[in-house]
């Protein structure tokens, strides 16, 4: 039964995982063209950690509750909804915020069907990570058949999705991660090989793997600390796609001249800050071209990688696990 209150992840002031708690707040009501989703599960993203630290404000008009993706059942249809959604339908959603709560409102164009054969817990691992990887590879990076893609943080949520999508696009994925066990996991998902960034120079190893040609596309969530190695192993006319700054924002050195010399391009993208029209177009294309591959019998079988499932009440433990880089794939929160 829909009530006027709900539980949500909350923090009063920025800080470490210890500032997080559950709080009873008002249940949102769907506006024009929106659907109210009763949340079964929501996945954790690096953006949640940064927002909790006070370094990443939600976009204007978005909920200040954490959570960029969720799965559940349609609980209410707002005015002007045109379908095909009905009350009770299972769905998964891309969100600008608000997913780590018992209910969240979603523009109906950002809802996707749960792939056949997946649980709602598994479905919660798809929207943000897989749409991000799809956008970076297909829309921003323009990956072509036969090209080589270097994926940093290859065993995180976006990384595990990017490995599989790279194979779907008939390209060749390479990853950086650590330790060796994570590299083996990446290979099982389809990575050609992996480089332990803590023990070896991934740039030199990528050049060896490509017989000196370099990689055509780099998916980079690290940023500043990797710039020299990225440029070193980027092929002529390569595309360096930046979507995070985990390694800092400062660049000191001849970045521009090296880009120019290789005729390379540096492209940046943050999905959360895109407008609704762009996101709805992305969701539509992803739904039409990718979602069927999650279902049994697909020629290229995709699967969301779930690292660990925490009850919502253990939100602090979930954040600590991601902050320590212990996860392989997505950390999921299940709603009470």
Automatic annotation (TrEMBL):
SMART domains membership: PKS_ER
Signal peptide limits: none
Pfam name, any one: ADH_zinc_N
SUPFAM superfamilies documented for this protein: GroES-like, NAD(P)-binding Rossmann-fold domains
Keyword check for Oxidoreductase: yes
Keywords per UniProt: NADP, Oxidoreductase
Domain Enoyl reductase (ER): 15-333
InterPro entries assigned: ADH-like_C, ADH-like_N, ER, GroES-like_sf, NAD(P)-bd_dom_sf, Quinone_OxRdtase_PIG3
This protein's record includes keyword 4Fe-4S: no
NCBIfam families named in the record: quinone_pig3
Protein name: Quinone oxidoreductase PIG3-like isoform X1
Species this chain originates from: Erinaceus europaeus (Western European hedgehog)
